[in-house]
Amino acid sequence: MTILDLFSGPGGWSHSLNVLGVRDVGLEWDEWACKTRAAAGQLTIRTDVALYPVWPFLGKTAGLIASPPCQAWSMAGKRLGLVDQPLVHQAVADLATGRDTREQLLAACRDERSLLAAEPMRYLHALNTVGEPEWVAMEEVPDVLPLWRQYAAILRTWGFSVWAGILNAADYGVPQTRRRAILLASRTRTAEPPPPTHAKTTEPDSLFGPGRKRWVSMADALGWGATDRPVPTVCAGGGSGGGPEPFPSGSRKTLTDARDRGTWTPRPGSGIVLQSRRDGAGQAQPHGTRKNRSAVAPTPASTAEEHRWSWSLRSNNQANATIRSVDEPAGTLFFGHRANECTWVAEPTHDPDGDAPAPDPIRITAQEAGLLQSFPADYPWQGNKGQVFSQIGNAIPPRLAAHLLAPHLGKTLTLDDFTLAA
Predict the structure, then answer these.
(1) Where is the active site (predicted)?
(2) Domains plus CATH for the chain?
């Protein structure tokens, strides 16, 4: 039996399944996301989900996963999906009865990507004719929740137990307060959200069980202290259009120390690790141990000068950008436009002597962004910097995905799967 992953991207869902000892088949159109999936050893059909037929999966599909593209709905874009929402609801209602009105509705959409959120219903309707799938998991930006509730109402008439709501990835150990609309459905068990493992503040143990841990901070995930300084790196090629990319603000064109040390990587023995049991003896290893040891460089020593500054992550270049200290989770990471670049910014830890200026902002690296999405440090991203950042920003955090999928697979997550090293 197959787990079918629509709009599978670079493998957020797939990597979580790999950790749980299961594989899926991903349908994805983006060339570089497909190359990333191939490098990660994930099964992929490069295709347009809206054009691919459902019949090859009939009688073979145990679970269906879908994360339709969010650009039409995201607050980082023009949000024309909200304007098109009535048309998307109509498409879902029609597809649920076997009527394909997508061509007519698409012509009326302000953003052609809006209607992709209705595509899972085309697959679900066809699969339902043979009593499949057994379970469903879907994820999107919060504004899509009304659409998920429409899906839920339809799936209940087909015999599914369904839950739809908003979850915060930080509540499941992701170092990012990424809120997403989630739909979970099952023919065989009560659909409900997984119990949170983390909270904004540490919760004490009680008679009812262990308390939740404090949200994972960026410093925990990246192996930093509050005053560690990001290492500027040369950005040679990799703009969103594939052409040359200018040096990021705060980088030095000579970059003697950065060249000597290489690009920043986590300290050995620190950071969030999401690793397949296949990669070790049934145990997750901190990056920098075993086979990854040679790929990890030491974090540069902090000087007294650097300890005058604390570092925060600014989510974009806009006036209302979210700014979070490294001892907190990141805000929602999104990329794809110059205004959406995330940068490390410094603030004084005390009144600095003299008029020494604060260090310039330094652009986040792809490896740092991947870690803040709970991907491993050595995840094999493919493409230039712009293409990699786009993949990272659009992916579901694997750690959240694993919590959503484990109950449907009869799996229990343990420290063998996820490790926050000391």
Answers:
(1) 70
(2) 2-199+398-414 (3.40.50.150), 218-394 (no CATH)
